Amino acid sequence: MKEALDSRIDQSQYVRNYGMAARTASRIVAQASTRQKNEALLAMAQAIVAGQSRILEQTTWMLRPVNSRAWLTRCSTAWN
After folding, report:
1. Could you read off the pLDDT of 51-69 as tens digits, one per residue?
2. ∠ CA(62), CA(56), CA(10), 5° rounding?
3. Are 48 and 55 in contact (CB under 8 A)?
4. What is the C-alpha separation between 73 and 10, in angstroms, rounded?
5. Contact 61, 74 (CB under 8 A)
6. Is the pTM here over 0.70, yes or no?
7. Are 71 and 64 in contact (CB under 8 A)?
């Protein structure tokens, strides 16, 4: 029971930290010029293309049928 509670607290803190980071990032992006934003978007797109095989490798398991016990187990552990 305590482990489950600790897990929820950890998840809550994790989400809170990402929220604070997103807020900080939004303030920085708001001050950027259109050119800077476009350059950042282009760099992100290039990184996605460059890493597409790794991204697909890491996410292919999500495409398996939902009724698969292994898939459900992996999902539940991936999000915890």
Report:
1. 998 888 888 777 766 656 6
2. 55
3. yes
4. 20
5. yes
6. no
7. yes
